Amino acid sequence: MAGKYSALTRHLANLEVARVSMTFAEIEAILGEPLPGSARSHRPWWANSGRGHVQARSWLDAGYQSEQVDLAAERLVFVRLNAVEAVPLPPAGTGDHPLFGCMAGTITLAEGVDLTDPMFTDADMAASLDRKSALLGGGHP
């Protein structure tokens, strides 16, 4: 792995974090030389396309992609490819899955609504089924 950006590849490859925020100055310190002017003025320079872009190959080869590129603040975030955020496990002995209750409070029912009440009467259902049966049989409802 030789090349202008190999030091960045090595640096990122040695990290064991899912996300790393870096300034352009920090990247330049790792590289030992300044970034080209286009890195500061053209957002596509930070694109995650390794085809023909040696700088992108450096972070892609290390298993990261660039995100949240802020040219004005001269900073970005490298995110590990295929990283899975850890879901905290519940305390031992609770028996609850970490996702248990994740939808709690997202649905509310109007006061007086009984979900066990039938929505349609038997006559309504019979009429609906008769119409559908007639349509399937080629008749008219």
Describe the overall structure:
The protein is of the alpha+beta class and 141 residues long. It has a domain at 6-80. 31% of the residues lie in helices and 13% in strands. The chain contains five helices and three strands, in the order H-E-H-H-H-E-E-H. The chain has helices at 6-13, 24-31, 37-41, 54-61, 122-136, and strands spanning 19-23, 64-70, 75-80. Strands 1-3-2 form a three-stranded antiparallel beta sheet. Strand 2 (64-70) and strand 3 (75-80) form a beta hairpin. The longest helix is centred in the last third of the chain and has 15 residues, at 122-136. The protein is elongated, with a radius of gyration of 29 Å. The mean pLDDT is 86.
Class from helix and strand fractions:
alpha+beta
Overall pLDDT score = 86
Proportion in helices = 25-40%
Biggest sheet character:
3 strands, antiparallel
Strand content: 5-15%
Radius of gyration: 29 Å
Quick one: overall form? elongated
What's the number of helices? 5
Contiguous uncertain segments of 5+ residues: none
Distance between the termini: 74 Å
Order of helices and strands: HEHHHEEH
Number of strands: 3
Strands of the widest sheet, in order across it, are 1-3-2
